[in-house]
Structures are given as C-alpha cells and as structure tokens.
Automatic annotation (TrEMBL):
<dbReference type="InterPro" id="IPR000277">
    <property type="entry name" value="Cys/Met-Metab_PyrdxlP-dep_enz"/>
</dbReference>
<comment type="similarity">
    <text>Belongs to the trans-sulfuration enzymes family.</text>
</comment>
<feature type="modified residue" description="N6-(pyridoxal phosphate)lysine">
    <location>
        <position position="244"/>
    </location>
</feature>
<feature type="region of interest" description="Disordered">
    <location>
        <begin position="1"/>
        <end position="31"/>
    </location>
</feature>
<dbReference type="GO" id="GO:0030170">
    <property type="term" value="F:pyridoxal phosphate binding"/>
</dbReference>
<dbReference type="GO" id="GO:0016846">
    <property type="term" value="F:carbon-sulfur lyase activity"/>
</dbReference>
<dbReference type="Pfam" id="PF01053">
    <property type="entry name" value="Cys_Met_Meta_PP"/>
</dbReference>
<dbReference type="GO" id="GO:0005737">
    <property type="term" value="C:cytoplasm"/>
</dbReference>
<dbReference type="InterPro" id="IPR015421">
    <property type="entry name" value="PyrdxlP-dep_Trfase_major"/>
</dbReference>
<dbReference type="InterPro" id="IPR015424">
    <property type="entry name" value="PyrdxlP-dep_Trfase"/>
</dbReference>
<protein>
    <recommendedName>
        <fullName>Methionine gamma-lyase</fullName>
    </recommendedName>
</protein>
<dbReference type="InterPro" id="IPR015422">
    <property type="entry name" value="PyrdxlP-dep_Trfase_small"/>
</dbReference>
<keyword id="KW-0663">Pyridoxal phosphate</keyword>
<dbReference type="GO" id="GO:0019346">
    <property type="term" value="P:transsulfuration"/>
</dbReference>
Length: 446
C-alpha cells in the first residue's frame, strides 16, 4: 500500500474522487515531532482536528464503513492509490479518522514518524512481533518484562508461530550482544522502566548493540510516557498500553504502536498487515475519549512523579526497603537522569520489598483497609494509588526460577502512586497504616 499513516490531509470534495493527480500529498508529514525535544511541545504542535461543524473538539466518526462518490474510487482505494492521507477511508478495521487522529498525537508524543492505536497494549505488542518476525525467527528480550509479554514470548509464539526468544539481563550489554544472532535475531525487546522491578534500561547503548547486528529495537514505554522518549534515544519502535497513565481513568483498554511510517503502513497492509488482518481495532468512541485526555497527560505525570519521589523518600527514612529510580541509591538513578525529558520526574511507581508474600499482603491490607491510602488492584496510572503483590499477580506467569532471575521478590509490592487529595493528606493516611504495621514488628527506624 502507499505510505499513508503519517500524513496530513484536508477534507476532500466530491470532485476529488476522480482526481488523477500523482498523490504528492502523501509525501507531506502532518508535523515533524522529532524537531521537538519536549513531548508536550510536540503534542502542542500536532495537527488539531476540529469538529465537523467547527467545534473545537473533533467529531467522532462512528461509521464501520465509508461511502464513495464514484464507483471507480473504491477500486483505487483497494489498490492503495487513494487513502486516508487524502481523506479516503474504506472500513474502520483498516483506518478510522478518529483513531487516526489519536495516532497522530501518539506519534507526536513519542517523536516517531507514525503511529496507530489498537484495542489493547498486548495487541500492540503481539502485532509488532508478528509483523517483524517470521516463522523460524528469533527474539532477544529482557528477563524483566510484564508477565503477559513474557507468556507471549515464551509460550504462545514458539507454539503457534515457531518464533523463539532468548531472555537476557539487559543490564549486561555483553550478554545481550552474545544473544543477538546476526541474520536470525529480528527484534531486541525490553521495557524502558521494567515491570515491576523498576530497573531502567540503557536505551542508547542497547540500541547501539542491536543496530550493529541489524536488529530492530522495540521498547515498551508504558511506565514512562512523557518521562522517556525511546525513539529519540535510538529505538526503532515504541509500544504502549494506553490503558495506564495515558488514559489515567482505569476505564479504557487500549494500546499503540509508534514507529517509522513504513512499519505502521506495513502493519495496515491489506494483504500482509498484522494489525489489518488480526483486527485488534480501537473503537472510534474510545479514541475520542483518549484524545481529550492526552493534552493534560504532562500535568498528570508531573504530579504522579512528584508524589512518588516524596513518598519513596519518606518511606526509606522510616526503614522500609524502597525501590524507586528517583532515589540516589537506585542502581540506575544516574542513567535515568541522563535519559529523561527535563521536569517530568522519575516515574509514578515505587516498590516496597516486604520479602514474603504474607508480609506484602499485611502491608496492602493495612494501607487499604486501615489507612484508606489506596486500593489493592492491578494496573497503574490511576488517580488513586493502586497496589499489588507482583509475584502473585501481574508476574505470576513466570516460573519461580524466572522470577528470581528477573529480581522479583515474593514480597515485592508495586505501587502506582495517585494524585487525588493533597500530598500531606495522603501521607497522613499512609502513616496511619504504617503505625499499625510497626506495632506488629514491621520495619521502623533502626
């Protein structure tokens, strides 16, 4: 198909159906987000889609299928001669105008040529893998990845697609380089900030090692939107679970693939496209809601990060074993400082290692039911604090030995710090629960 994803197009008139021009509009970018080092500035410079009747908010294009003015137009659309770059749409499983607008915002935020949004984060990851890696191909992936991603790579893809994965410690560049097989390894996959251990990947160095062997780098940036821009640090493809921080409401499941226009177009190809043919389509109404939330993502991320750093600092002072990349004793603190976009912070998640699952459950129970500090629930990026014991929840797909290699303690409590209420109000609630815990011999000042 023709290159169509990353381009701007004006509303077509009826006569455009029979326009036999050479399609030069397809070569015009909607914006060049790579020119902006700050993702908030890139979002502000992206094309603003107005409503059908001049509304400041875009209209929702809820149609599953689209009409044409001339019979010949449909044939030209199916050959790729006419496409969304000039406001020609076929079917919403392929391209939908509202979803395409959200995709433009995601591309601007991540500094990539193009993006397209999907029904979930896992569908984005799965589609990228199936587009980049054929049967018999090989992937090198971090040991520290979300449990669902680990299951996809270690169980589903080998069984269903004959795609194998070698899991490595991405902190060890020599191990990564040895695992990459030139000519066979197609993808190096890792998370910018790992789920749930909050280990930080050295994105520029990992990209250097992979690109030296002709391997495509795919980075899951779900934990660090706005904070880190992997594509600006050398990554080829960035995937997101939009469900988390970007949505912010714990009410929407969604994902995104951000990368070169050539890749995104290939994923939407009528004959070979993983997104087109597998069909993880985002609903236009969902895309509209998400488009309305992205403009205040920067503000939300700054508050998530500010509170996470404050609570991590205070918890550490109380004697708890806290993991947070904003703390100076975090092993990748200086690395993260060298990669982050200025003024956003160090992430909205922190971990407390309670060492055993029983102690982790005690902590979460008291924080929810005595302190009203947060909720025991998976996911992250909500305005309330969410807590889970990763080993028995979101990382439970890993075997015990895999969990140990990933550095996941049985008592690791992952907290996504919310921003509801005042900071001191929430700290008071946290202290209330901690006081009760300390009565039972839990960590306190030494």
């Amino acid at each position: 198909m023709a290159d169509i994803v990353a381009f701007s197009g004006k509303k077509r008139s009826h006569s455009d159906d029979m326009d036999n021009g050479n399609g030069d509009a397809k070569k015009t970018m909607l914006s060049n987000p790579i020119l902006h080092s700050d993702p908030a500035a890139a979002l502000a410079s992206a094309r603003h889609e107005f409503g059908e009747h001049g509304g400041v908010n875009m209209s929702i294009e809820a149609s599953a299928t689209f009409t044409v003015m001339e019979p010949e137009t449909m044939r030209r659309m199916f050959t790729g001669e006419l496409g969304p770059d000039r406001d020609f749409f076929i079917y919403s499983r392929h391209f939908n105008p509202t979803v395409l607008n959200l995709s433009r915002l995601m591309a601007a935020m991540e500094g990539t040529e193009a993006a397209y949004c999907t029904a979930s984060g896992m569908s984005a990851i799965s589609a990228v893998m199936l587009q980049l890696v054929s049967s018999g191909g090989h992937v090198v992936a971090s040991r520290r990845v979300y449990g669902g991603t680990h299951a996809l790579l270690s169980h589903f893809l080998p069984r269903a697609c004959n795609i194998t994965t070698t899991f490595v410690d991405v902190m060890d560049l020599e191990m990564v380089e040895e695992a990459l097989v030139e000519g066979k390894t197609k993808v190096l996959y890792f998370e910018s900030i790992a789920n749930p251990t909050l280990a930080v990947a050295n994105i520029p160095e990992l990209c250097r090692v992979a690109h030296k062997k002709g391997v495509t780098v795919v980075v899951d940036n779900t934990f660090a939107p706005m904070i880190i821009s992997p594509a600006r640090l050398g990554a080829d493809v960035v995937v997101h679970s939009i469900t988390k921080f970007i949505s912010g409401g714990a009410d929407i499941i969604a994902g995104a693939v951000c990368g070169p226009a050539s890749l995104v177009n290939s994923m939407m190809d009528l004959h070979q496209g993983a997104l087109m043919l597998l069909g993880p389509t985002m609903n236009a109404k969902v895309a509209f809601e998400l488009s309305e939330r992205i403009p205040h993502l920067a503000i939300r991320m700054k508050e998530h990060c500010h509170r996470a750093l404050t609570f991590a600092t205070r918890l550490k002072a109380l004697g708890f074993k806290v993991i947070y990349p904003g703390l100076e004793d975090h092993p990748q603190h200086e690395l993260l400082k060298s990669m982050i976009n200025k003024d956003y912070g160090f992430g909205g998640l922190l971990c407390i290692d309670m060492e055993t699952e029983e102690r982790a459950n005690w902590l979460m129970n008291h924080l929810q039911n005595y302190g009203q500090f947060g909720f025991m629930a998976v996911s992250l990026g909500y305005y309330e604090t969410l807590m889970s014991c990763s080993g028995s929840s979101t990382s439970s797909e890993l075997k015990p030995e895999e969990m140990a290699l990933a550095g996941i303690s049985p008592g690791l409590v992952r907290m996504s710090i919310g921003y509801i209420g005042t900071l001191e109000q929430k700290w008071s609630q946290l202290e209330k629960a901690l006081t009760k815990l300390q009565e039972h011999g839990f960590p306190g000042k030494n």
